[in-house]
Specification:
6-stranded mixed beta sheet, alpha/beta, 2 domains, binds zinc ion, Diaminopimelate Epimerase, Chain A, domain 1, single chain
């Protein structure tokens, strides 16, 4: 280990001391009965409705979900459950995987929860023949109307997810979405250019998941064999264009979520706080985006902050980014990087850490006089250089937005 590396580690250790004060989710024990209960019920009926919700649950919704599941060429397991405090924790993201492990069959596993009459969900797709077809995430990113699907009832989004999974699985065309499943008031979105689409597929190909609409998408595909494109622009560096596309996708999306929150007739003080928090994050995201067209650190910072603004405004579910690579799915797992260092990480990176290795991380070029420029994980850069390295993109301390505003000023 070089002296430089050790120095960096020490610096990082200082930063990590902040971790103790992070408002992270308490390590709450899972109610063990929930996954067992659902998995057991699925043995007789792959559509599970929580007992507390069964009375009066609209049969038409269930019928639609059943019909969509029957049209798929793989098993579809669906659980409809209320959003309990336990499920509000980051742990709910693991539920489809936990359930799949219990059932042991390939298929599409959907866990959909309701809170304040809005439905959101998580899914995992495990393919019978291993990696085959496209990733579910890439199909969802290409499905331009996915964002406009109503979420005041469960069937529209669940049916769409099953259709998207079928397309990912065997390439069949996505059917049109019935007009009654679409929100009417959504502003028009500009069509992405072909280049954007290519960038997006490169991005997706690198194994980066994303939040799609209100759906958190995690596929085992990403964890198993991460598809990598044969050629990657700029050597092995994280492609700037992909990060830029994500920032440009999430900034307007967060803006819409904030406007939707503002439109509600009356506001509780919690909602006002959420709005202010989301706005501060979005403003900082815009500042970073305006200032960094080709700067991967600024663009990734903009992406993370916009995604968080969306999380805060739409569901009060703030998640830290994956410390190792902020462009990964959110840091839903605490990874023990060393004896005294714990960082939020995505599940892929957490797995790598579990195996005693350090994830590849977000690579940036370090311009070193003697050795030219080489690619290094961003966390080895001087934390004093910018707020992103100082806070691990907000993974180590949740004050990235404030720091950005302090360093770069307000929205330009
Ligand atoms: Zn990660």
């Amino acid at each position: 280990m070089s002296a430089l590396f050790l120095r960096r580690c020490r610096r990082l250790a200082v930063l990590l001391a902040v971790l103790a004060f992070l408002p992270s989710a308490p390590a709450q024990a899972a109610p063990p009965e929930l996954p067992d209960q659902i998995a057991a019920a699925w043995r007789t009926d792959p559509l599970y409705v929580d007992p507390a919700m069964r009375a009066g649950f609209p049969q038409a919704e269930l019928d639609r979900i059943k019909a969509a599941a029957a049209s798929a060429d793989f098993n579809v397991y669906v659980a409809l459950i209320p959003r309990t405090p336990y499920l509000r924790e980051e742990r709910s993201l693991d539920l489809p995987t936990l359930l799949q492990a219990r059932v042991g069959e390939p298929g599409l596993y959907l866990v959909w929860t309701v809170r304040d009459k809005y439905w959101s969900g998580v899914e995992t797709m495990v393919r019978p023949a291993g990696l085959r077809g496209r990733s579910l995430v890439s199909v969802q990113l290409d499905d331009k109307q996915d964002n406009k699907i109503v979420n005041d009832r469960p069937a529209p989004k669940i049916v769409r997810t099953i259709q998207q999974a079928s397309t990912a699985y065997d390439g069949r065309a996505l059917p049109a979405i019935p007009a009654t499943d679409l929100r009417q008031d959504t502003p028009r979105r500009t069509e992405p250019s072909t280049t954007d689409k290519e960038d997006r597929s490169v991005f997706v190909g690198m194994g980066i998941g994303g939040l799609i609409g209100f759906v958190l998408v995690l596929t085992l595909v990403l964890r198993r064999g991460r598809r990598r494109p044969a050629t990657r622009r700029g050597g092995t560096a994280t492609p700037v264009t992909g990060v830029r596309t994500q920032a440009d996708r999430w900034i307007p999306k967060a803006g819409r979520a904030i406007r939707a929150l503002e439109k509600q007739k009356s506001h509780t003080s919690l909602q006002l706080d959420l709005r202010d928090d989301a706005r501060a994050r979005l403003d900082a995201a815009k500042t970073l985006r305006a200032g960094g067209n080709d700067d991967v650190l600024a663009l990734a910072g903009a992406y993370v902050l916009a995604r968080q603004a969306f999380q805060v405004a739409s569901s009060d579910d703030l998640l830290p980014p994956c410390f190792f690579d902020p462009t990964h799915p959110s840091g839903t797992v605490r990874a023990a990087w060393s004896d005294d260092t714990e960082v939020p990480a995505c599940r892929t990176c957490a797995k790598t850490v579990e195996q005693g290795k350090t994830p590849r991380g977000l690579l940036v070029s370090r311009k070193s006089g003697l050795f030219g420029s080489d690619l290094v994980p961003y966390w080895t850069l001087d934390p004093e250089d910018n707020p992103m390295t100082a806070t691990g993109f907000g993974a180590l301390s949740d004050d990235l937005a404030e720091r950005v505003t302090r360093v770069y000023g307000g929205v330009r």
